[in-house]
Specification:
four-stranded mixed β-sheet; single chain; 209 residues; 10 strands; six-stranded parallel β-sheet; 40% helix; alpha/beta; Rossmann fold
Length: 209
C-alpha cells in the first residue's frame, strides 16, 4: 500500500482505537493482513468454539481457513441442515467472528442484517466478538458510516446473493420494502457494557464490502 495511505491509516486507526477504548471495546491496528491474522489467532485460545456470520474480511486475511483447519471447535453453518439449530449453537460459542458494514472514526459500529443472525450474535450471545475491519470501512462519523452501510455494503451484498432489490440493480439504497431486502435489522454498537467482550482489529488494507 502507498506510504502516504499507510500513514493516514495509522493516524486514523489511533483515533478509532481511542474511541473504541472510551466505549469499553478494545481496538488493534494491523499493518497488513498477515499481522491481522496473527492478532486474531492470538485472541482465540486453542480448543475454543468459534462461529461466524459469513465474513468476507475474515476470509481475506486467512482467518476463516485457519479456524476451520486449526485446533478449534468451528460451528459451521453450512454443515447444518437446520439453519436455526446452527444459529442457536452459535449463540453459545466462545467467539463470534464478524466485520462491520461501517464504522465511525470515534468507535461506533454499524451493521445491517436480513435474518438477524449476525446482528443478534453481535448484540448478545457468544462470549466474545472479534471484528476484522479494513480501513476502507472507517468513516468520519456515525451518519456517514450508516450511509456507507446502506449505499455500499447492502447493494454489493444484494448483488452477491442474487437478490431482487432496487439497490441490486441500481447500486444505491432506495429505503425499499422489497421482499428480498437485507436491510431488515440495524444494529448500532456505541458502547459495550461487558468489558473485554468486543475486539476490533483495524487492518491497513481494503477488506470486504
Amino acid at each position: 500500500m502507498n506510504n502516504n495511505v499507510t500513514k493516514r491509516n495509522e493516524l486514523l486507526a489511533q483515533k478509532a482505537i481511542a474511541g473504541l477504548q472510551s466505549r469499553n471495546m478494545t481496538g488493534y491496528y494491523a499493518k497488513d493482513k498477515e499481522e491481522a491474522l496473527k492478532i486474531a489467532l492470538g485472541l482465540i485460545p486453542k480448543g475454543s468454539s468459534v462461529t461466524m456470520g459469513g465474513c468476507t474480511s475474515s476470509d481475506e486475511i486467512g482467518l476463516t481457513d485457519a479456524i476451520k483447519n486449526g485446533d478449534y471447535n468451528f460451528i459451521d453453518r453450512s454443515k447444518y441442515e437446520d439453519k436455526r439449530a446452527a444459529m442457536l449453537d452459535g449463540y453459545n460459542a466462545d467467539f463470534f467472528i464478524s466485520s462491520v458494514n461501517g464504522m465511525s472514526d470515534d468507535g461506533i459500529l454499524i451493521n445491517i442484517d436480513g435474518n438477524a443472525n449476525r446482528v443478534s450474535a453481535i448484540a448478545q450471545g457468544p462470549k466474545k466478538v472479534i471484528f476484522i475491519v479494513g480501513m476502507n470501512k472507517v468513516c468520519p462519523d456515525m451518519d456517514t458510516a450508516m450511509k456507507r452501510a446502506r449505499n455500499v455494503a447492502a447493494p454489493i451484498n444484494s448483488q452477491r446473493f442474487g437478490l431482487s432489490t432496487p439497490c441490486s440493480s441500481t447500486g444505491k439504497c432506495f429505503d425499499c420494502k422489497s421482499p428480498d431486502t437485507i436491510c431488515c435489522q440495524f444494529l448500532i454498537t456505541r458502547y459495550s457494557r461487558h468489558k473485554d467482550r468486543i475486539h476490533v482489529i483495524l487492518v491497513n488494507d481494503n477488506l470486504g464490502f
